[in-house]
Amino acid sequence: MKLALWLKNSGTSARELAVRVETTQATISRLKNGHALPSLELAGRIAEATGGAVTANDFLDPAPSERPGNGLAGARILLIISGGIAAYKSLDLIRRLKERDCELRVILTRASQEFITPLSVGALAGAAPFTDLFDARTEFDVGHIRLARECECIVVAPATADLMAKIAGGHAGDLATAVLLATDAPILLAPAMNPHMWANPATRRNVARLAQDGVSFIGPAEGEMAESGEAGTGRMSEVPEILRAIENLIGHSGGEPLKGKHVIVTSGPTHEPIDPVRYIANRSSGKQGHAIASAAARAGARVTLMTGPVEIPDPLGVETLHVATAADMLKAVEEALPADIAIFAAAVADWRMTAPADQKLKKKPGAQEMTLDLVQNPDILKLVARGHKRPGLVVGFAAETQDVVENAKAKRRAKGCDWILANDVTHARGVMGGEKNAVHLVMEDKTEDWPEMTKQQVAEKLIVRVAEHLAHAKAGAE
To answer: What global pTM score does this model have?
Structure first.
């Protein structure tokens, strides 16, 4: 990234630049590492602060070879912008959608106009936004119904707690909610709110209801809030992530190298019951496995995801099967076979109770210890890799705390799989439950050391490697 080079050559720290351009150090770090795109306003301030060394075009106008795929060309998308500080990101989202030649219409809620103006939205979208349910210019032919029916997808970014509550309750008191209630197109929400609002039981109920109704979600992400001293889960997802979610919902980017292939992915932890209230588990969040399933779907594959208990939404465009125990996951995998590719990213518990207790285990007076009778769980990776329905490519994961690569090489040989992605999951690394990962791709004849990336980027790179492997295998067979 040009910004990273400028920071290095100028001796300027990310913190110093953040102060100059009136943003956060975390934002500069994400921009430097290519994990986010700036708003138009921030790109301009960076250009001014760097004396033109890093221009707005370095962020906003990539070279033709680096431009995104054309999977959304001609897609009819309705963007609803609700009232929140994250509304400024929607200006960049509009620009990115227009770059992809989308047919875009925009609705601004009344609250959103406190943060961005109809003029700025109209200038970027190429048409004036819709703002009023009772606008005589558009409602003479029931315009809100046309908006609801003439789109392939509705994206709400940002989606505030208030708007999500209204959608969940079936309200239709303004143009945005009336359109959302009248549509039969897929809906994608990009929530943005204070972490306490996101964690509030009322919001959690509304999210669960919307998910049951078939609404899809992207985010929210973890990070610093606009409010001073506030941080947590509640940031609106970055524009590239929202674009990937839209592509996954109604199209595909960069071609479909896995079209016609069936990919099985496992994700998350398993919960092995001890008694009715306790279980053996681990810290896996499922973020890496879900990202892989999503990337495979964007590459055109038919994806079946088996996930243990997680707190993240199901990936878009993926058949998701929810399981609890290792035995459940094995059964689901066996029923999903045959497949062309199997990627085992789940952190399956190694042990389970020989016989889970029917009643809650009680502490015994005077006893300082308790012995649990455990037995090994089935080795799903090994059973599939050495089974008669073995997929053509079997990929496993190795979560290690020491001698990461050497242990992964031994695991690959013992399991009989083709590749192993090994990562260091010591607590200091923050991989379990975190947003980033640094992996080593261990193959039979070589090992690739990948730099630290977001889990989404790891997933995309893995799917690229999978597609390349299949292409080479096909060329060799011919």
So the answer is: 0.57
